[in-house]
Amino acid sequence: MSSAEQRTAVWDAPLRLFHWALVGLIGFSWWSGEQGLGWMSAHMLAGQAILALVAFRVLWGLLGTRHARFADFLAGPRRVLVDLRGLLRGRPEPHTGHGPVGGWMVVAILALVALQASSGLFASDDIFTEGPLAGRVSGETSDFLTWAHHVLFDALLWVVGLHVAAVVLFYPLVARTNLIAPMITGRKRLSAPSGSAGGFGWRVGVRALILLGLCAAAVYGGVSWAG
Length: 227
What we know:
227 residues; Fumarate Reductase Cytochrome B subunit; Di-haem_cyt_TM; transmembrane
């Protein structure tokens, strides 16, 4: 770290815990889905936990700390193209939080995860296993959502693979930027920080726990009631 750089607080603890919890749950969902009937109950619970996490991230994108908010990193096509051009040339625009390209990647992953997990609620193999809400829709609709559940997971694998390749290979080698360490420590090395996210005290944790609890209650309560 050069003398001009500062370690700046960017990612709050709730956001970082969300990130790694989602990584773990997606991995577990894939693994448990491959293990057969004995793991289907755990697979479905993991899917509902994923939905609760995604709902939390959406609310945290509105009510969280500065750089967790969608308003901080979502941008229009012109800014996205400028950001992408800089990345491809190896001269990325400096961003304290997510840049426009990374921000839309976050949205794409959240959308795919939400759709994939939601479709699983209605999926059925017509023999042994069905999602908790499969009985609430017609057989044709359940068949379509079962197909979508598998196709969306394949699409999610491609998008996640692209994300991992960008974080592990492109950004360190081409853009000379480390994105992994800040998602662990919450701090980035910045030469000219535009201000930290701030407010990383206990109130942030309490707010996050309340939101996560509400999201979990809404998902599990809604599925139990509808099922």
